[in-house]
């Protein structure tokens, strides 16, 4: 039921997730940020079982920060992703497995390249141009398959994410009222919040940069 | 559905005259949903030694990590290059240790021995070794691969002929398997060099 | 990371596999030997016989596998059941027997091997799926003992085991007699295994035989090959250019068999 999308361009990554915390059929919270900033250049978005999401992502976040302090350099995206996979795989074989699906996206300031990793709850990892988890994937993958290009610009990638969200809102039984979108590029991490709009009687979303109120819309 | 069919895979290894070929498909799925079309399942261990890991993707990756660790330790402790049969028994042991809680992966080893003789070996998920003079197959398309290889394999094929026979066996097998496909990678191992071919495959 | 030198069976995957099974996935098949294995006592010793087919469900996984395992110079063991279990159990007992031989400076006895096998299998309460026929010659003469997965043993003059045991036993019950001559006994073992090969779907291919007497052991690998494949009448070679290649990389090998080796791959674009 949770939404999680990632799109990788040449020198940026776009991550998007919904904001709902639900228990059974009840929405408990409408403004939950499901992403963790692992360091200056890397973001991890997490969905899954409620308790697992928090304890696992906090553990990963803290440890990656600790690594960064000890080594005196931030971990790269692939280092973050593979260490996370290893931790999840080990936990899976213990008495307390974590039921979490992850997307890890980031920018490498040394190579000037971005990368996006998709890790599922069985801890299979793959580096991909675009990714989604859960029910969302059935709606978003077809759209991303069709529209994705290697030379996508930041604005185009955000617009593609908006189209995915619009499609979900239109076709998915379980509607989601809001989303958080993050762009990770050379300058760092930019956060956008969703703003629902009405477009010829149909709902769509604009994304507003939290820092400077710049609006990105689909059109 | 069996857990070995969760992600989908197809691997084939074939022997020829002074050469071996090992190839795999590139799909990673979650049941019917395709997640990645660039997921290789054959890994280089040494110059003339490759291992193919068909099965559950998480175990493929965990096993690959552990094989790499054990082979590096072997290098440091023994100070000589590991041979294909050594590697086969090493992996077999790793799998049998987990006899009662196995990794869902059936490794296939392909390489050239010290004397540059072709070597292929397969095993089941708890490490029962099985050798064959001709070919070893594995993954969700293994039934199809058995059929293709029985028809296409013949003794003493040179590297070029062997490459084509193995590639055609693989491509045609995955075309009749819904869980694997989306292109293929084939490694042709000869005494002088290893050629890696990325093949065009159906995208459906 | 799991330390490489931790001994014995590991159970770290069990919890996870339980989880996977609870989500409705079926755990995978193991390679089984399917199998017809037989053994008999004749005038000068004991003979074991086996077919050479290994199966994985309905698929023939290995057309010429070895089911006669060497324990010591004077003892062999024919195995049926889960192939990995027969292989690893007999290997482990073989190592123990060799150490026993070196420690005691005596030829190991068949009952020693039988006790070791039976105790090991009993310890694992039938979870190790090894059905074994143990044959050997020691100071007590020729002996034939069967060991079942739960650890029970039988001592008989002739026996058969595996999915083809009924077919093979039919032959033994008709033709076995005490104190047979060597050639007749080998022929009878071959006939019994062949009955399994041709009448049982789990058994097939060739007949392996081992003859153990007081002072020598003859391992007759592929003693009878009743299912030789005829040469192919047509070649199905594909013509050059029939495989479309997107990308080709070449990696030249460094000086043969030296351990550090990494040559930067040369990338070639081609359409073969």
UniProtKB/TrEMBL annotation, chain A:
It comes from Mycoemilia scoparia. It comes from the Eukaryota. One of its GO terms (cellular component) is nucleus. It holds the Pfam family Proteasome. This is Proteasome subunit beta. Belongs to the peptidase T1B family. Component of the proteasome, a multicatalytic proteinase complex which is characterized by its ability to cleave peptides with Arg, Phe, Tyr, Leu, and Glu adjacent to the leaving group at neutral or slightly basic pH. The proteasome has an ATP-dependent proteolytic activity. Keywords: Cytoplasm, Hydrolase, Nucleus, Proteasome. GO terms for biological process: proteasomal protein catabolic process. One of its GO terms (molecular function) is hydrolase activity.
Automatic annotation (TrEMBL), chain B:
It comes from the Eukaryota. The gene is PUP3. Belongs to the peptidase T1B family. CDD domains: proteasome_beta_type_3. Component of the proteasome, a multicatalytic proteinase complex which is characterized by its ability to cleave peptides with Arg, Phe, Tyr, Leu, and Glu adjacent to the leaving group at neutral or slightly basic pH. The proteasome has an ATP-dependent proteolytic activity. The keyword NADP does not apply. It is found in: Cytoplasm; Nucleus. Component of the proteasome complex. One of its GO terms (molecular function) is hydrolase activity. One of its GO terms (cellular component) is cytoplasm. Keywords: Cytoplasm, Hydrolase, Nucleus, Proteasome. One of its GO terms (biological process) is proteasome-mediated ubiquitin-dependent protein catabolic process. Pfam families: Proteasome. This is Proteasome subunit beta.
Automatic annotation (TrEMBL), chain C:
InterPro entries: Ntn_hydrolases_N, Pept_T1A_subB, Proteasome_bsu_CS, Proteasome_sua/b, Proteasome_suB-type. The active site is at residue 35. GO terms for molecular function: threonine-type endopeptidase activity. The keyword Kinase does not apply. Belongs to the peptidase T1B family. Component of the proteasome, a multicatalytic proteinase complex which is characterized by its ability to cleave peptides with Arg, Phe, Tyr, Leu, and Glu adjacent to the leaving group at neutral or slightly basic pH. The proteasome has an ATP-dependent proteolytic activity. This is Proteasome subunit beta. It comes from Mycoemilia scoparia. The gene is PUP1.
């Amino acid at each position: 039921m949770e939404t999680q999308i990632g799109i990788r361009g040449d020198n940026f990554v776009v991550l998007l997730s919904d904001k709902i915390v639900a228990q059974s059929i009840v929405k408990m919270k409408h403004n939950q940020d499901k992403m963790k900033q692992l360091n200056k250049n890397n973001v991890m978005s997490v969905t899954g079982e409620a308790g697992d999401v928090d304890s696992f992502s906090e553990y990963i976040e803290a440890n990656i920060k600790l690594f960064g302090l000890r080594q005196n350099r931030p971990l790269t995206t692939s280092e973050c992703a593979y260490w996370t996979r290893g931790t999840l795989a080990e936990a899976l074989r213990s008495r307390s497995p974590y039921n979490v699906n992850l997307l890890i996206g980031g920018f490498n300031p040394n190579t000037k390249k971005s990368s996006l990793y998709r890790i599922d709850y069985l801890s299979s990892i793959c580096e991909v141009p675009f990714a989604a988890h859960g029910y969302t994937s059935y709606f978003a993958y077809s759209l991303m398959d069709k529209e994705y290009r290697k030379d996508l610009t930041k604005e185009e990638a955000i617009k593609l994410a908006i189209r995915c969200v619009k499609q979900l809102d239109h076709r998915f039984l379980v509607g989601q009222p809001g989303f958080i979108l993050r762009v990770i590029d050379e300058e760092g991490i930019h956060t956008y919040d969703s703003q629902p709009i009405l477009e010829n009687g149909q709902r769509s979303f604009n994304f507003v940069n939290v820092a400077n109120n710049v609006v990105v819309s689909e059109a | 559905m069996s857990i070995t069919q969760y992600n989908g895979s197809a691997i084939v290894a074939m022997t020829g005259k002074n050469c071996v070929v090992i190839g795999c498909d590139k799909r990673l799925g979650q049941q019917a949903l395709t997640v990645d079309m660039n997921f290789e399942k054959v890994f280089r261990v040494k110059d003339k030694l490759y291992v193919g890991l068909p099965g559950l993707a998480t175990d493929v990756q965990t096993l690959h990590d552990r094989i790499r660790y054990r082979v590096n330790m072997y290098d440091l402790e023994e100070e000589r290059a590991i041979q294909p049969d050594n590697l086969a028994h090493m992996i077999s042991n790793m799998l049998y240790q987990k006899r009662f809680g196995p990794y869902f992966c059936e490794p296939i080893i392909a390489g050239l021995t010290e004397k540059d003789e072709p070597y292929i070996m397969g095993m089941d998920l708890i490490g029962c070794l099985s050798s064959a003079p001709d070919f070893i197959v594995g993954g969700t398309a293994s039934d199809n691969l058995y059929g293709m290889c029985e028809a296409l394999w013949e003794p003493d094929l040179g590297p070029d002929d062997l490459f084509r026979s193995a590639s055609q066996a693989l491509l045609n097998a995955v075309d009749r398997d819904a869980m694997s496909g989306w292109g293929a990678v084939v490694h042709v191992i000869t005494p002088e060099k290893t050629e890696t071919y990325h093949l065009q495959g159906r995208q459906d | 990371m799991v330390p490489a030198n931790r001994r014995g069976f590991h159970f770290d995957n069990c919890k996870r596999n339980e989880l996977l099974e609870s989500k409705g996935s079926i755990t995978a098949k193991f390679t089984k030997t399917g199998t017809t294995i037989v053994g008999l006592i004749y005038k000068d010793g004991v003979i074991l016989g086996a077919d050479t087919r290994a199966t994985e469900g309905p698929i023939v996984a290995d057309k010429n596998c070895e089911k006669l395992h060497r324990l010591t110079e004077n003892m062999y063991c024919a195995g049926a059941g889960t192939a990995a279990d027969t292989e690893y159990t007999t290997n482990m007992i073989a190592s123990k027997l060799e150490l026993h031989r070196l420690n005691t400076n005596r030829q190991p006895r068949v009952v020693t091997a039988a006790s070791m096998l039976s105790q090991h299998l009993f310890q694992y309460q039938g979870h190790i799926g090894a059905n074994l026929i143990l044959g050997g010659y020691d100071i007590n003469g020729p002996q034939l003992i069967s060991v079942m997965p739960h650890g029970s043993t039988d001592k008989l003059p002739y026996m058969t085991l595996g999915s083809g045991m009924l077919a093979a036993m039919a032959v033994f019950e008709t033709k076995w007699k005490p104190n047979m001559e060597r050639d007749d006994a080998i022929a009878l073992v071959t006939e019994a295994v062949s009955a399994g090969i041709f009448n049982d779907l789990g058994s097939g291919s060739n007949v392996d035989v081992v003859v153990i007497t007081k002072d020598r052991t003859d391992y007759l690998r592929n003693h009878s090959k009743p299912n030789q494949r005829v040469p192919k009448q047509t070649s199905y070679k594909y013509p050059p250019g029939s495989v479309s290649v997107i990308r080709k990389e070449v990696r030249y090998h460094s000086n043969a068999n030296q351990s550090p080796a990494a040559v930067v791959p040369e990338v070639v674009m081609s359409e073969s």
